[in-house]
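Action item from last week, closing it out:
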Amino acid sequence: MQVAQTSFKQDTSFKSGFYNVTRELDSSVMLSRALIDGCGCTIPWIIMANNKTERKEKARRFLFDYAIAYMSPFLALPLLNRFSSRYIGKLTKSFWSNNHKAIHISNEFLKDTNSMMKELERMSNKTDKNPIIETLYDKFNSKKKYAQKLNIYELLQSAYGNKEKLRRKIITSKNTVFILDCLSTFGILGSVPFVNNEITKKDSGQSGFSAEMSMADKEIVEKRAQEHEKNKKKKYLAYWASMCFTTLIMSLTAFSVLKSKSSNKIIQSLKNNAKLFDYNKGIYIARFPFFIGFMLTTLANILAARNGTERKDLAIRQGVGSAIFFGGDLLLSSIFTNFSDRIFGTKLRLNDNDNSFIRKIFPKVKSVKQVMEEVEQGKISKSNKKVAAGIFWTNMLILMVSMGYAVPTAINKMIKKDIEKDVNAQKNELSNDVQI
């Protein structure tokens, strides 16, 4: 009884301030990426820009990316979830019905009706508030109280009491959200570098790579961008084609496969891994599709590069940056956790019964959320919470320093040498043309 009382007091402190922020960042790859992009990449990259034009270009990119990728989902995704559940899956009779939360269910539980119903029952006992949606609801439905809980009876009514039909309607709704989200988010993000180039062209009167505008004469910078200017429309269309194709493939392998009744091993494997495409709280896209989308936008940046030097710059910056973020955080967390558990006796490793040599060195790690829940339940000491949060922020700091300062500093030196070499070659070529 005493343990329960202690846990309750601790629980109230977890829901606010530092630990609450840490838990949310750790649970969302989108939010943690936003933090690293802002503090660890964009701001130092703007400061380290070679000239005013490049600095303005990077600042615009920062504002576009944050508005589209990191800010809009908080409003757009809840509305998209409602749109899909009302007009596509027809799970609800009203746009404002909270039965749209049925599509928050993990794909893990959509493989069969029994698993689905058990999870929906669990979800129906939860109350998650969204102040923005509730404010909009009150504005348009002031006479009717906002219902916060999931109503399973009404969900089954939408499928005429047929659980299998309900399962398929939920899958269709989730798939629609995923497709529309990918096409809009990654479509717009992939358009940003092309649009940004045109803004720079209009603002500076030059169509070349902005970093070179302080390193070479206008004629040389323009000549180096001639090939891109001729093919930029084809490149833009090529990006959209690749993005649409990739979205279709992800949709087929993550959602459409759930409807299949085949016992084929490949189909079953895809079903078991369909949970990799879930949205956390219906807003935060999962790590795997986010990684695929980020690679697509990296492709867009490279296609929008105005010459070979800019392509090289972007390929290295974003390639190394992605490897550090998408792999580095997992690697660092694993190393720090292994060290802490062995030296200080914490219990942060995730026991998955994998005793392989690799897992002994790089074990799987509990999320900050899981650690906090276990502390609340009295399963582990409260020091585990402090260490888990400390490891997370140490991890973030290392990633921000390496991505924001160490990597671009090393790359800038190499790129500047490359630019000087190319510019000198162009100068000699122009001089020869003049003499002839």
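Closing note: The longest helix spans residues 383-435.
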